[in-house]
Specification:
The protein is of the alpha/beta class and 305 residues long. 33% of the residues lie in helices and 20% in strands. It is built from ten helices and 16 strands. The longest helix is centred in the C-terminal third of the chain and has 15 residues, at 275-289. It is globular. Bound molecules: succinic acid. The site of succinic acid (SIN) has 14 residues, from loops.
Length: 305
């Protein structure tokens, strides 16, 4: 018997496999395909104060080993998430869910985080200071250590549950941002969000996505994400959630050796909606193959010592 249980900020997960925000809707959509209770948990679509239609279309560009998205935080707004989406999720998911919060001002982050943090189903609040697809929001806070810390401080004042900050790789020094977020009271760090990228259509000779650029994710970013998880783990004491290009149980183990306490699967859900279920299924076998009996024991195992 192997033990896949891990702890994320004081909440026990049956396994470290979570679906990443923006790739798993509000969960119930995937519950039509399989029992989503097999997951450790998931992070639901980034939610803002008001409903958002998102960016103009086209918003997706295919790439080898990944894709570019420029969704622009499309979501029904916090009122509808609480009154309509979370009740639907309650019918098919018994575990705590991670609430992903977007915003365009510190006040908005704080208001949305407060309201979602008060929902019984919500176990963690994930503050997204890293969306590359909106102007004056998201990334504007996540590229400056002090701005990111200000968001964390404001959210921590009003949320009584663990606050996890989702960081962007589009910076020169992700460690300094993680460290400031920890000092400001963050309970965990999740990384990485998408890498800013673009494609150009050779026939039209224009950018493929209407917003010109978007966030690149998928298997190609895995080594970058792994490197950043490794670096952040060495410099903070709070748990790290590893995100970026994960698509197999082997990738999960590699991320945990780099320092992740749990992982989120993103782009892979878009090409294979069963991928999270299959990773959970494969994990015990892959653990046995590599002589691992307890997943908790391998967290950060690739570091010195
Ligand atoms: C989006 O809605 O544009 C994606 C969310 C994100 O990248 O944070």
């Amino acid at each position: 018997m192997v033990n896949t249980k891990v702890d994320l900020c004081g909440i026990q997960l049956d396994n470290p496999v979570m679906a990443a925000s923006g790739t798993f809707g509000y969960g119930y959509e995937f519950a039509e395909l399989y029992d989503i209770n097999v997951l450790g948990s998931f992070s639901f679509k980034g939610t803002t104060l008001k409903p958002r239609f998102g960016n103009p279309t086209p918003r997706i560009a295919e790439c080898s080993e990944g894709l570019i998205n420029s969704i622009g935080l499309q979501n029904p707004g916090v009122d509808k998430v609480i009154s309509e989406e979370l009740p639907k999720l309650a019918e098919c998911f018994d575990k705590k869910v991670m609430a992903n919060v977007g915003g365009f001002s510190i006040e908005e982050y704080s208001e949305v985080a407060k309201r979602l943090g008060e929902c019984e189903q919500v176990g963690w609040v994930e503050v997204n200071v890293s969306c590359p697809n909106v102007h004056h929001g998201g990334l504007a806070f996540g590229t400056d250590p002090q701005a990111a810390a200000s968001v964390v401080r404001a959210v921590k004042e009003v949320v009584r549950k663990p606050v996890i900050v989702k960081l962007s790789p589009n910076v020169t020094d992700i460690v300094s941002i993680a460290v400031e977020c920890e000092k400001a009271g963050a309970d965990g760090i999740s990384l990485i969000n998408t890498l800013l990228g673009m494609r150009i259509n050779l026939k039209t000779k224009k950018p493929v996505v209407a917003n010109k650029m978007g966030g690149f994710s998928g298997p190609a970013v895995f080594p970058v994400a792994l490197r950043m998880v490794y670096q952040v783990y060495e410099n903070v004491k709070i748990p790290v959630v590893g995100i970026g290009g994960i698509r197999t149980a082997e990738d999960v183990i590699e991320m945990m050796l780099a320092g992740a306490s749990a992982v989120q699967i993103g782009a892979a859900n878009l090409t294979d909606p069963y991928v999270c279920r299959d990773i959970v299924r494969d994990l015990p076998e892959v653990m046995k193959k590599y002589g691992i009996t307890d997943l908790k024991e391998i967290i950060g195992g690739a570091h010195n010592g």
